[in-house]
Design goal:
By secondary structure, the chain is mostly beta strands. Helices cover about 10% and strands about 45% of the residues. The strands form eight sheets. A four-stranded antiparallel sheet has the order 4-5-6-7, with no helix packed on it. A four-stranded antiparallel sheet has the order 8-9-10-11, with no helix packed on it. Strands 12-13-14-15 form a four-stranded antiparallel sheet, with no helix packed on it. A hairpin with a 4-residue loop joins β22 and β23.
Length: about 300
């Protein structure tokens, strides 16, 4: 009991340190933005300390796939790329500047791609064929095919500066993979009692947040391979999306099959804010949500339509 409590305390201290580092970065960016904005120009659409402008119309409307698009991820490393996955067994990488496809990467024939992520020149895609593929975006060559799950792989994230991958599966396990060498190595396995369809990773790649079909959220320590925290019954029905707050390491945003978005404080294991609307419906186990870059909780819903359309 004492050991478990100590692990939770250590985890919360780490999250508090991350939050402090984020706030320092936010202050720096805010100071840089303030003198830029002083030179004139409209500020009607500017919001938050980072000077982000809210879009009023889609920049591009892309017919990304011939059938259902299942996932979309933006590259946060400054490459202006997004990746989409689809039930057509492909992952596509798009240039956000012109809306043109840069790469079409193929998974297992006849097996839907269920999750994607990209960062630093790599893109990963997982699917119903029980594996996760890692591609080099520039060469469009597959450099790893991670095999070890016994059923479909439902979600994936890159971590540790693209040196690692973490995957979640319907076999009720989460696996950590080392891809820093020419031959991959599966290093850690987290086991749990409910399928995870979504997860996110802290900025330092030491903590994994996973959302589960039993409505719960779990926190995992990558170094020890231990589950350090359970947030039970956060949603009625499964959790479909988990995202770390970009400016507050103690909070995460979740979406659930109950069609409610919740901001969860992991220190108290409670929802500090719940958001919903009579016209909002979470229709899929992979329905996603997001937080604005400055953490002001502007909620983004990705409409992944049957025709594979993305905006």
């Amino acid at each position: 009991m004492v050991e478990t409590l100590q692990k939770e305390v250590d985890m919360l201290r780490t999250l508090h340190k991350q939050e402090a580092q984020r706030k320092e970065g936010l202050d720096l960016v805010g100071n840089q933005r303030s003198h830029i904005g002083a030179g004139g120009g409209s500020s009607d659409r500017r919001f938050g300390a980072t000077g982000v402008f809210l879009p009023t119309t889609p920049k591009h409307v892309i017919q990304a796939h011939p059938i259902e698009a299942t996932s979309v991820r933006y590259d946060g490393t400054g490459l202006d790329l997004i990746a989409t996955g689809s039930s057509d067994s492909t992952v596509k990488v798009w240039d956000t500047n012109n809306g043109q496809v840069k790469a079409t990467l193929r998974g297992g024939s006849g097996h839907p791609m269920l999750g994607v992520d990209l960062s630093g020149g790599l893109v990963v895609g997982c699917g119903a064929d029980k594996t996760c593929r890692v591609w080099n975006i520039r060469t469009q060559r597959m450099i790893h095919q991670l095999a070890g799950h016994s059923t479909k792989v439902t979600c994936v994230r890159l971590l540790n500066n693209e040196k690692g991958v973490i995957t979640g599966s319907a076999d009720r396990s989460i696996k950590v993979w080392d891809i820093s060498r020419s031959t991959y190595k599966q290093t850690t396995t987290f086991r749990h009692s409910s399928t995870s369809n979504c997860m996110d990773v802290s900025l330092d790649s030491l903590t994994v947040f996973s959302g589960h079909m039993d409505g719960g959220i779990r926190l995992w320590d990558v170094r020890s391979g231990k589950r350090v925290l359970d947030v039970l019954s956060m949603h009625e029905g499964g959790v479909t999306s988990v995202q770390c707050h970009p400016m507050n390491g103690n909070q995460i945003l979740t979406n659930g099959r109950d069609s409610v978005l919740r901001v969860v404080d992991v220190r108290t294991c409670t929802a500090v804010q719940s958001l919903g609307h009579e016209d909002f419906r979470t229709a899929f186990n992979y329905s996603s949500c997001g937080i604005s870059p400055d953490g002001e909780l502007s909620i983004i819903r990705f409409f992944l339509l049957g025709g594979g359309m993305c905006t």
